Automatic annotation (TrEMBL):
Its main location: membrane. This is alpha-1,2-Mannosidase. Its EC number is 3.2.1.-. It comes from Myripristis murdjan. It catalyses: N(4)-(alpha-D-Man-(1->2)-alpha-D-Man-(1->2)-alpha-D-Man-(1->3)-[alpha-D-Man-(1->3)-[alpha-D-Man-(1->2)-alpha-D-Man-(1->6)]-alpha-D-Man-(1->6)]-beta-D-Man-(1->4)-beta-D-GlcNAc-(1->4)-beta-D-GlcNAc)-L-asparaginyl-[protein] (N-glucan mannose isomer 8A1,2,3B1,3) + 3 H2O = N(4)-(alpha-D-Man-(1->3)-[alpha-D-Man-(1->3)-[alpha-D-Man-(1->6)]-alpha-D-Man-(1->6)]-beta-D-Man-(1->4)-beta-D-GlcNAc-(1->4)-beta-D-GlcNAc)-L-asparaginyl-[protein] (N-glucan mannose isomer 5A1,2) + 3 beta-D-mannose; N(4)-(alpha-D-Man-(1->2)-alpha-D-Man-(1->2)-alpha-D-Man-(1->3)-[alpha-D-Man-(1->2)-alpha-D-Man-(1->3)-[alpha-D-Man-(1->2)-alpha-D-Man-(1->6)]-alpha-D-Man-(1->6)]-beta-D-Man-(1->4)-beta-D-GlcNAc-(1->4)-beta-D-GlcNAc)-L-asparaginyl-[protein] (N-glucan mannose isomer 9A1,2,3B1,2,3) + 4 H2O = N(4)-(alpha-D-Man-(1->3)-[alpha-D-Man-(1->3)-[alpha-D-Man-(1->6)]-alpha-D-Man-(1->6)]-beta-D-Man-(1->4)-beta-D-GlcNAc-(1->4)-beta-D-GlcNAc)-L-asparaginyl-[protein] (N-glucan mannose isomer 5A1,2) + 4 beta-D-mannose. InterPro entries: 6hp_glycosidase-like_sf (IPR012341), Glyco_hydro_47 (IPR001382), Glycosyl_Hydrolase_47 (IPR050749), Seven-hairpin_glycosidases (IPR036026). The chain crosses the membrane at residues 22-42.
Length: 596
C-alpha cells in the first residue's frame, strides 16, 4: 500500500513526531473520559447532569429476577420525589378508635367520607441508587426505609397479573396465565380480591384498592350453591371484608357483605354439641361434611365472630364461639394437650394426634389473640392459652443435637420429630404472648420465641433456594431439612416471615429484617415468573419447577408481613390491632357494647 504525502504536512503530522502525537492523543482521550465519567458522580440536582443524561439513564435496568417486562416497566416509570421514600409508613392506623371510645361511636364517626389514603398513589418504584445499594448489600446498607416500597412493587406485580389474567377468579395461575376457582370456597369467587383489599389499602395503592372495592360492590355474589370450608371462608372472606371495613370505614358495602356471609355460616353449628362441621353447603344452608371436626378449623372463628356480633349488635356469633370455648375448656385433655380431631356429635376427641402445625396451629393463635383483642379482659382465653403452652413446652418442644429448638408432633404419646412450615407462626405467637403470662416467664417466652424463629430461619438457609420446605425433620441425621420428596415444596406461605415481623416489632433486632430481606431475594429469584409469583416444587433443587399457583395468602399475608417488617411500628401498632390468621387486621375492642 502506498501512502501519498500531503503537501505541507510532515510524515508524523502537524510537525509532531509520532511518539509525541501518541502521547497527546492519549492525554486528550483521558481528559474526555474523565469529564464525561464525572457526570455520573455528580448529585442528581446538578444541571449539567440533567442535560447530558436522560432520566431513563438513572432508572434501574432490572429488578430482582430481571424479567424483560420488568425492565421495560421500569424504564417507563417517572421519577418519584425523594421525600416520599422517607417515613413511607402510611398513617391509616390513625383511624383506629380512641382508647376510651365505644365501637358504635367510632362507626358513626366513620360514616361519610372514608379517611383519606396516606400515601400518594404512584410510588411504585424505589429510587434506583438507594435500591441498588440495598439490593446488593442489604446488611451493610441499613437503608431499610426503601424496602416497603420494594414490597409494594412486588404487590403491584402480583396484583396486576391477577387482574390481567384471572380477574374475579380465586387465584392466578401465573404460568398458564389463567384463573383458578378450586373447591375450597363453595363457588364463592374473587378470593384474591377479598384477601388483598386491606394490603392494597395499607400500601396506599388507591387505584387498585378502588378496583377491588368496586368488584366487591358489583360482582361479589354470595348466593353460591357449593360446599365450602367454614374455616377458609371465615378467615379469608369474613376476615378480609371486616378488616377492609375497619381500615376504611366504608360501612355499607363491606360490612353488609361480611354480615350476609356470617349469617350463611351459622347452620354449620347445628350439631348436637354446637361444634361446627368443617364443610358447609352455602346453597342449602346446612353443613355438608360428616366425620370429625378439626381443631384448627373450629378453633379459628373467634376473632371474626366476636366482631360480627359487635358490629351487628347480635350476640349470636359470639354465643356460637363461646360455646366452642366452653366445651374445650371442660373436656379432658391428654397431658394438657389438645388433639386435632373432635367429634361434633359426641364432643369427644377422635384421635390423639397433636400438632402446632397443620390441623392445630391457629387454634392456639386465636386463644392468645382473643385475649389481646378483648383489651386483655378475656381471662378464660388467657388461662387456656398459657396452660396449652405449658403442655406444649413439656411435651412437644425439643432441642436437636445441633442445638435447634423445634416443636415436634405427638401421636398418642410418641413423638414425631417433624416440624411443619405452618408451625413456624408459633415464634411470633409466643412472642406476642410473652408479656401477659407470669412476669418471671416473660424473658423465657421471648427466648423461646426467638429460638423457634431461628430454627425456622435455618430451614430456609439450609436449602438451595433459601426458601423453606413444607415440613422439615430432626431425625435420621436431618436437622431442619426435609427428608421426604413430598415435603420439599414451598407454596408462598407466610408463617416464617410472620414470625420475623412479630420478633422485629418486639425486639428490634436487625437480624429479623436481614432474614426478611433474604426471603425477598429468594422469592424474587425463584418464585417470580413472567406473569406473577408461583410456588415451587422443591426448595433444594438448583433449577426450580413451579407449581403454577399464586396463592391468595401471598398477597394477604406474605407481602403484608414483609411490608410491615420494613415499616415503622406505628403502622398498625400491635397495641391497637390483632391480625387474624390470614393477616387481616382487626381492632382491639376497648369497650364492648355486648353484655354477655
Ligand atoms: C393461611 O391461609 C392461614 O395463615 C392459615 O392459618 C394457615 N395457612 C395459610 C397460609 O399458609
Amino acid at each position: 500500500m502506498v501512502f501519498r504525502k500531503l503537501p505541507g504536512v510532515s510524515a508524523s503530522g502537524m510537525g509532531l513526531r509520532l511518539s509525541q502525537k501518541f502521547v497527546f492523543l492519549l492525554f486528550l482521550s483521558g481528559l474526555v473520559t474523565l469529564c464525561f465519567g464525572a457526570l455520573f458522580f455528580l448529585p442528581d440536582s446538578v444541571r449539567l447532569k440533567r442535560i447530558f443524561l436522560s432520566k431513563t439513564d438513572t432508572q434501574p435496568v432490572t429488578v430482582g429476577s430481571g424479567s424483560e417486562n420488568d425492565a421495560k416497566e421500569h424504564l417507563k416509570r417517572t421519577e418519584v420525589p425523594e421525600a416520599q421514600f422517607h417515613g413511607a409508613a402510611p398513617t391509616t392506623c390513625h383511624v383506629v378508635q380512641s382508647k376510651s371510645s365505644k365501637l358504635p361511636r367510632v362507626l358513626t364517626q366513620w360514616t361519610g367520607e372514608p379517611p383519606s389514603l396516606p400515601v400518594p398513589s404512584v410510588p411504585h418504584v424505589c429510587p434506583y441508587n438507594s435500591f441498588r445499594l440495598l439490593y446488593r448489600h442489604p446488611i451493610k446498607a441499613r437503608d431499610w426505609y426503601v424496602c416497603p416500597l420494594f414490597m409494594l412493587q412486588m404487590m403491584k406485580f402480583a396484583w396486576d397479573n391477577y387482574k390481567r389474567y384471572a380477574w374475579g377468579k380465586n387465584e392466578l395461575r401465573p404460568l398458564t396465565r389463567n384463573g383458578h376457582i378450586g373447591n375450597m370456597f363453595g363457588g364463592l369467587k374473587g378470593a384474591t380480591i377479598i384477601d388483598s383489599l386491606d394490603t392494597l389499602y395499607i400500601m396506599g395503592m388507591t387505584e387498585e384498592y378502588n378496583d377491588a372495592k368496586e368488584w366487591v360492590q358489583t360482582s361479589l355474589d354470595l348466593n353460591s350453591n357449593g360446599e365450602a370450608s367454614l374455616f377458609e371462608v371465615n378467615i379469608r372472606y369474613v376476615g378480609g371484608l371486616l378488616s377492609a371495613y375497619y381500615l376504611t370505614g366504608e360501612e355499607v358495602r363491606l360490612i353488609d357483605k361480611a354480615m350476609e356471609l356470617g349469617e350463611k355460616l351459622l347452620p354449620a353449628f347445628n350439631t348436637p354439641t354446637g361444634i361446627p362441621r368443617g364443610v358447609i353447603n352455602l346453597g342449602s344452608w346446612g353443613w355438608a361434611s360428616a366425620g370429625s371436626s378439626i381443631l384448627a378449623e373450629f378453633g379459628t372463628l373467634h376473632l371474626e365472630f366476636v366482631h360480627l356480633s359487635e358490629l351487628s349488635s347480635n350476640a349470636i356469633y359470639k354465643e356460637k364461639v363461646m360455646n366452642i370455648r366452653k366445651l374445650l375448656s371442660k373436656i379432658e385433655k391428654p397431658h394438657g394437650l389438645y388433639p386435632n380431631f373432635l367429634s361434633p356429635v359426641s364432643g369427644n376427641w377422635v384421635q390423639h394426634h397433636v400438632s402446632i402445625g397443620g390441623l392445630g396451629d391457629s387454634f392456639y393463635e386465636y386463644l392468645i389473640k382473643s385475649y389481646l383483642m378483648s383489651d386483655k379482659t378475656d381471662e378464660e382465653a388467657k388461662k387456656m392459652y398459657y396452660s396449652a403452652l405449658e403442655a406444649i413446652e413439656a411435651n412437644l418442644v425439643q432441642k436437636s443435637p445441633g442445638g435447634l429448638t423445634y416443636m415436634a408432633e405427638w401421636r398418642g404419646g410418641i413423638l414425631d420429630h417433624k416440624m411443619g412450615h405452618l408451625a413456624c407462626f408459633s415464634g411470633g405467637m409466643i412472642g406476642i404472648g410473652a408479656d401477659d403470662g407470669v412476669p418471671e416467664k416473660r424473658q423465657h417466652y421471648l427466648d423461646l420465641a426467638a429460638e423457634i424463629t431461628h430454627t425456622c430461619h435455618e430451614s430456609y438457609t439450609r436449602s438451595a433456594t433459601k426458601l423453606g420446605p413444607e415440613a422439615f425433620r430432626f431425625d435420621g441425621g436431618a436437622e431442619a431439612t426435609a427428608t421426604r420428596l413430598s415435603d420439599r415444596y414451598y407454596i408462598l406461605r407466610p408463617e416464617v416471615i410472620e414470625s420475623y415481623m412479630y420478633m422485629w416489632r418486639l425486639t428490634h433486632d436487625p437480624k429479623y429484617r436481614e432474614w426478611g430481606w433474604e426471603a425477598v431475594e429468594a422469592l424474587e429469584q425463584h418464585c417470580r415468573v413472567d406473569s406473577g409469583f408461583s410456588g415451587i416444587r422443591d426448595v433444594y433443587a438448583t433449577t426450580v419447577g413451579h407449581d403454577n399457583m399464586q396463592q391468595s395468602f401471598f398477597l394477604s399475608e406474605t407481602l403484608k408481613y414483609l411490608y410491615l417488617l420494613f415499616s415503622d411500628d406505628d403502622l398498625l401498632p400491635l397495641e391497637d390491632w390483632v391480625f387474624n390468621t390470614e393477616a387481616h387486621p382487626l381492632p382491639i375492642i376497648r369497650d364492648s357494647c355486648l353484655f354477655l
